[in-house]
Amino acid sequence: MLRAFIAYGPDDLAMKLPALSLLALGLLCSAALAQKPAQPLAQKPPAKPARSSAEILAATSAADWRDVDPENLLLMTLPQGQVLIELAPRFAPRHAQNIRALARGGYYDGLAIVRVQDNFVTQWGDPDADTPDKARAFPAGAQARLPAEFSVALKGLPLNALPDVDGWAPRSGHVEGFPVAADPKTGQAWLAHCYGMVGAGRGDAVDSSTGAELYAVIGHAPRGLDLNITVVGRVLRGMEHLAALPRGGQNMGFYDKPEQRLAIRSVQLAATLPAEQRPALQVLRTDGEAWKALLDARRYRGGWFVHSPGHTEICSAPAPVRNKP
Amino acid sequence: MLRAFIAYGPDDLAMKLPALSLLALGLLCSAALAQKPAQPLAQKPPAKPARSSAEILAATSAADWRDVDPENLLLMTLPQGQVLIELAPRFAPRHAQNIRALARGGYYDGLAIVRVQDNFVTQWGDPDADTPDKARAFPAGAQARLPAEFSVALKGLPLNALPDVDGWAPRSGHVEGFPVAADPKTGQAWLAHCYGMVGAGRGDAVDSSTGAELYAVIGHAPRGLDLNITVVGRVLRGMEHLAALPRGGQNMGFYDKPEQRLAIRSVQLAATLPAEQRPALQVLRTDGEAWKALLDARRYRGGWFVHSPGHTEICSAPAPVRNKP
User: Fold this and answer.
1) What is the DSSP secondary structure assignment for residue B45, as one 8-state letter?
2) pLDDT at position B49, please?
3) pLDDT by residue (tens digit) across A176-197?
């Protein structure tokens, strides 16, 4: 009993697909066809039993993985451990550039986690940001004002679209490991607010974010935030250090007392570290066969599972991360 | 900057709907029509500016709220606070009955939280459950074997279906405040694995759960578990005490060392307490106008928001809970 649903997770066994799932699959197909004609239908179940996620990952080659660029890798050191964040300059180039400048200038060092709202976000920055005479000054090279970067052009974007229906957007999938939603009618694409995604806090003005204040999603994907705020990247390692923090109070989870805040020891850009000190991380390519197989391993479950959903979605399918072998 | 997206949450301001949302709404309409012909279309945006969630709740009357039956309310006391769980006997009658018997018999008192897997579940029970000679005996009235209760008949169920597309099931909505998914083709309905939902751990056998070991969802909704395990209820209060716990190790989040486990002081059934000691909780009725207005306040955002999703889903719309006035 204690090992209940231990089979759940990345170690699925042989694929098993009850009739119910075939039916559910059919419904998803028709829904996908109706909602996203430009997209492929929900995939048919694999002809042969699917490999488990662990087996699929074990069988990958170096070509299936992408190195994380040290220019896009942030190392946030907290008392309880390190959080590694990959910036997404393709989606938020000005914010990524500014966050690099802020990190290079030591801006975040000694600042704090100021907000932890259950099932929503953990947010960090300068507790005195709103007090002009006390707010920490930006280092040279960091801009105090940036344009909003809520979306980019869908055209030309290497989006690996999922055939699965996403109620929040007419199209969804992944770009270089990041969860992305898109709307062919408007020609826009944007990073989706999935668990572990990092965004830049803003005030009422859409262009009031600079990257000086950031948040990470620690609960069910708040997709209602999509297209309302600039998303800058994804936590690759250390989410548990952001998600397991004591929750703040009734004021949107902001800590009421200064002593509740958690000090940030430092936020460093990997590129500024000696090569041997840089974490060598890799993200599974989301434009390859291994990724396709992993998605199928989530749609068509085996082992402990008696029902396969025949479905997945961008926030249920995070791209795997590993240390470079 | 520090107050960034403080406007997000239950305190939305006047409704504001940009053209983009009208388009998105149109897409959702056609998708809803195609996917769920038996359901109403996605609602048109309100003719007049929507009230904020806070305003909607403030305007509710006693008739908009349902009392939580003390026979269905569990009080789990942990070192850091109390977790209040409402059982759902309509969906899992045998499990609810067994959990009541276990609580009445003091079975859970002194047991432990044994597993915390980031972005998945917190699980509790008898650490020695798998060791016959050490496993705690069930009290009189508790059954050691129950049928699986993965789904119920959709027919006759008072389901308040959402018009919004749900990729995981052809129909979704709420029943008495619980998130429910359903499939008219199979005639089944089931409790959905949303944040805060509570399920009964099982082994490989579908009928191996008894309610002696329970888990709560602490991350993005793992809807792939739906129809694979018996869901027994929902956490109404105290999720932060389950979600902010230190994560376990590589073995699916199970704590590797006994000293990592968190002792459960007690799990009591409210009905067994003197009337004046029972928490008097109410859940907003999900079959009324106030609930409809709250859902619209999520779909059509105002204030800080510049884009409205024109969409919501069962795991993004938890039914509000309050102390009975």
Assistant:
1) P
2) 53
3) 999 999 999 999 999 999 999 9
Cα separation of A14 and B152, whole Å? 28
Q: Which residues in chain B are closer than 8 Å to A229, comparing Cβ atoms?
A: 5
**Contact residues, chain A, for B31 at CB < 8 Å:** 31, 34-35, 165, 167, 170
- The per-residue pLDDT for range A260-302, each reduced to its tens digit, is 999 999 999 999 999 999 999 999 999 999 999 999 999 999 8
Please state, as a whole number, how many other Cβ atoms lie within 10 Å of the Cβ of residue A318: 23
- Beta carbons of B180 and B159 less than 8 angstroms apart: yes
CA angle B174, B225, A293 (to 5 degrees): 130
| Dist. CA A132–CA A312, nearest whole Å | 47
Instruction: Give tens-digit pLDDT for A220-255.
Output: 999 999 999 999 999 999 999 999 999 999 999 999
- Which DSSP letter does residue A260 get? G
Measure the CA–CA gap between A242 and A121, rounded to whole angstroms: 9
Q: What is the percentage of chain B residues whose pLDDT exceeds 90?
A: 83
Say whether A186 and B31 touch across the interface (CB within 8 A). no
Q: Smallest CA–CA separation between A223 and chain B, in Å? A: 8
- Closest Cβ–Cβ partner in A1, A120, A183 for B203: A1
Tracing tokens 């197909």 back to the chain, one arrives at: A29
**In chain A, pLDDT over 70 holds for what percent of residues?**
85
Pick from A47, A41, A290: nearest CA to A162: A41
Q: What is the pLDDT of residues A198-208, one digit of tens each?
A: 999 999 999 99
Report d(CA B144, CA B180) in Å as an integer: 27
Among chain B residues, CA nearest to A144: B1
Q: Shortest Cα distance from B228 to chain A (angstroms)?
A: 6
The vertex-A309 CA angle with A303 and A310, nearest 5°, equals 100
B83: amino acid identity, one letter: V
Mean per-residue pLDDT of chain A: 88
CA distance to partner chain B, nearest, from residue A202 (Å):
4
Measured CA to CA in angstroms, residue A83 lies from A80, A86, A131, B8 at distances of 10, 10, 28, 25
Provide the CA A37 distance to its chain's centre, in angstroms. 27
For the four alpha carbons of A249, A255, A260 and A264, in that order, the dihedral sign comes to positive
Q: What is the ipTM of this complex?
A: 0.88
**Interface size between A and B, measured as CB pairs under 8 A:** 256
Neighbours of B27 (CB within 10 A): 20
What is the CA A65 to chain-centroid distance, rounded?
17
How close A46 comes to chain B (CA, Å)?
A: 18
Count of Cβ atoms closer than 10 Å to residue A118 Cβ: 21
| Average pLDDT over every residue of B17-34 | 30
Contact across the interface for B35 and A20, Cβ inside 8 Å: no
Which of B7, B223, B246 minimises the CB distance to A309?
A: B223
What pTM was estimated for this model as a whole?
0.89
Quote the pLDDT of residue A15: 24
Q: Do A244 and B239 touch (CB under 8 A)?
A: no
Q: Identify which of B167, B229, B307 has the shortest CB distance to residue A165.
A: B167
Q: Which residues of A touch B130 (CB under 8 A)?
A: 1-3
A119: which chain B residues are within 8 Å (Cβ-Cβ)? 195-196, 239, 243
Query: Cβ–Cβ of A118/B240 closer than 8 Å?
Result: yes
Name the residue among B279, B299, B4, B205 with its Cα closest to residue A167.
B299
Q: How many residues are given for chain A?
A: 325
Given an 8 Å threshold on Cβ–Cβ distance, is B125 in contact with A220? no
Q: Where are the alpha helices (DSSP H) in chain A?
A: 19-35, 53-58, 93-104, 239-243, 289-299
